[in-house]
Amino acid sequence: MASQNQCYHGQLMGFFYNNSNQTKDNWGSTQLILVQCVGSIFCCFILVSNVMVIAAVITNKRFHYPFYYLLANLAASDFLAGIAYVYLMFNTGQASRKLTVQGYFIRQGLLDTSLSASLANLLVIALERYISVMNWKVHSNLTKRRVTLLIVLVWAISIFMGTVPSLGWNCICSLELCSTLAPIFSRSYLIFWSVSNLVVFLIMVVMYLRIYTYVMRKTLVLTPHTSGSINRKRTPIKLIKTVMTVLGAFVICWTPGLIVLLLDGLDCERCEVLKFKRWLLLLAVLNSVMNPVIYSYKDEEMWTTFKNLLRCVCNGTRRQRSSKANIRPGQESGNSLRLSEDTKNSAQEVLKA
C-alpha cells in the first residue's frame, strides 16, 4: 500500500480500480455493445420526451403557473440525467480504466448533479403544493420572480453537490479511505451523500402524506356543499396524485442505490456491493424514462399538448417534402428563362427611351 501522504492525481482510473479490488468486474465486448445499444434507445427517449415536456409548458398557456414551471425544471434535470447516462455508457468497462481523474470526476459529477437537481426540484414542488393546498387553491401565489429564484437556487445547490468530490472531498491522497463503488470517492463522502438524500426522501414522503390527508379531509367536508363544482374541487387532488406518483417512482428507483452506497461507505465487506452496481444503474435510467410517461398519463392536458406538438412536427416535415416535390426541374428552368426574357425586354425599353 502506498504511503498516506502521497497523492496520485496523475494516475489513470485503472490504478484506483485495482486499489478498490475491482479487477473482476469487467464488461465483455458483446455485453458492452448490447448495453450501449439498448441504453442509447432509452437515453434518446429520455432526451426527446423531456424536451417535449419543457416545450409543452412553454407553448401551452394553461401551464403558465408555478407548479408547471417547476415541473419543467424537473424535466430539465431528467434531460441532464440522459446526457449523463450517455457519457457513462461510453466510458464504462475497459474505457473507464483509461479515464483520467478529471474525466471520472466529470462522469460522476454529471450523475450527482442530475440526481441533486431532481431531488431539489421535488422538494421545491412539495413546498409549492403545500402552500397552495393549505390555501385550498389549485395553484400557489408564487410570482415568476420567486419561481425563477427557486430554479436558480436548485441548480446552484445541485452543481455544488456534484462538484464536492473534485473540490477536495476525495481519497486521491489517502487510498486506504477509498470506497469500492466509486474508487476515488472517500467512504465518508458516500455516507454523507446517501444519508442526506435518504433524510430528504423521508421529509418529502411525510410532507406529501400530510398534504394528501388534508386534501381528502377537506374534500369530504366540502362534498355535501359542492354538487356542481366538485370536479373543480378535485383538481388539486389530481395534481398532488401526479407529483406523488413521480415521487414514489423516484424513491423506489433511487433508495436501493443509496442504501448500497451507504453500506459501501460503512465499509461492509460482506455486502458484496459490486454485484448490485449494474442493476442500480438500470433502476436510475428507468426512473428518468418513467417521469414523462407519468406526466402524460396522469395529466390529460399534458398528453393533449404532446399530441399537438407531434402533429406540428409531422405537418412541418410534410409541408417541406411537398414543397420540394412540387418544384420540378422543368419548372425551375422555365421560370429562369422567363426571368431572363423579362430582363432583356426591360433593358431594351430603357435603351429606346
Automatic annotation (TrEMBL):
GO cellular component assignments: plasma membrane
Keyword flag S-adenosyl-L-methionine: no
UniProt region (Disordered), positions on chain: 323-353
Cellular compartments annotated: Cell membrane
Residue intervals passing through the bilayer: 33-58, 70-90, 110-127, 147-169, 189-209, 239-259, 279-297
SMART domains hit by this protein: 7TM_GPCR_Srsx
Gene of this entry: lpar3
PROSITE patterns noted in UniProt: G_PROTEIN_RECEP_F1_1, G_PROTEIN_RECEP_F1_2
A Pfam family reported for this protein in Swiss-Prot or TrEMBL: 7tm_1
UniProtKB keywords: Cell membrane, G-protein coupled receptor, Glycoprotein, Membrane, Receptor, Transducer, Transmembrane, Transmembrane helix
Stretches assigned to the G-protein coupled receptors family 1 profile domain: 49-295
Protein name per UniProt: Lysophosphatidic acid receptor 3
Principal location: membrane
Protein's membrane topology: Multi-pass membrane protein
UniProt GO molecular function: lysophosphatidic acid receptor activity
PANTHER family: G-PROTEIN COUPLED RECEPTOR
Family according to the record: Belongs to the G-protein coupled receptor 1 family.
InterPro entries: GPCR_Rhodpsn (IPR000276), GPCR_Rhodpsn_7TM (IPR017452), LPA_rcpt (IPR004065), LPA_rcpt_EDG7 (IPR005385)
